[in-house]
Amino acid sequence: MRSTVRIRRKALAGVSLLMSGVLLLGGCGARVATTSSGEPPERFPVRLDNCERQRTFDRPPRRVVTNDIGITEIMFALGLEDRMAGYFLSDGQRNGVRSSPWSAKFERTPHLGEEIGMEGVRAAGADMVFAGWNYGFGETERFTPGRLEKAGIDSYVLSESCRRSGARDARGIMPPLRALYTDIRNLGELFGVRQRAERLVSEYRSTIAQARERNAGGDTPSVFLYDSGRSEPVTSGNGGAADQIIHKAGGENIFRDLDDSWTTVSWETVLRADPDVVLINDYGGRSAAEKIDFLRGHPAVSELEAVRRGRFLTLPYASLVEGPRNASAVREIARFLDDVPADD
Questions:
Q1: Interval 17-28: pLDDT, tens
Q2: 244-270 per-residue burial string, b: 16 or more CB within 10 A, e: under 16
Q3: Model confidence, pTM
Q4: What domains does the chain contain, in order, with CATH numbers?
């Protein structure tokens, strides 16, 4: 999975040409400008609630660094690529870039390396980092919003990953799709693209509502999300975007009662649940086809009816973590579940 880490220090063309005192929403992206005196626009400071903490931004960020594909695609969907110094992305997510509706923007925006850290962020000249807990931020890696603040760099934390009060490691303070809408609106406010943000939220809600209407009154197939793992599978509990995506599509995550996002379980629990469908997360060092072959070759898992009947649906990682592909993931899963027989 590892490749040579490259840091590109060259900013995107046009980043430094800040000529007017207004925010303009252009076809290629959102152009944030300062006044002729170099002062921030009159609407600043901007105060946002992020992970149950009020954050104050004194000026519009101009060199944002992102980590992970879904987070980066949020910026792209809002047309904010011109505000980015670059992004960090592991090789395990490169297939997701190729399938991304914003693949051209990925190509035009500097890929800063596979693993985010202080050295790379400083080299990029970042004034804000958009990442999440276990989506770049982590105490063990000594890369946290607190450390960035000490270095004079702002941060915004992905709302899906927010830690619950009094629980250091447990994540999820709101339903995952609400987290997506919250982040889109917060960033729309910060960068002055509120109309675009509201339009995206409206589009996503409409897509999801149509998918729910499609499966209204039908059966509720059970779904096992298989991310990775051989001795023990990695899946998603109710704190991850995948759980709500499955629910909105008319299915039921077999680990819906697990108060966590991405976590490890046992094969025994999967076998007891006997899911109707296996959802494959196309991510990491093994291809989706290799993951399916592994399940078909597993002595116990291969006996599951969903495996024997080949009820596999594959979606990219970017569809199953918080990001702008969530709504289309709901639609795709709903279509697949619609064809699952009620009884065999």
A1: 333 333 333 334
A2: bbbbbbbbbbbbbebebbbbebebeeb
A3: 0.85
A4: 24-203 (3.40.50.1980), 219-338 (3.40.50.1980)
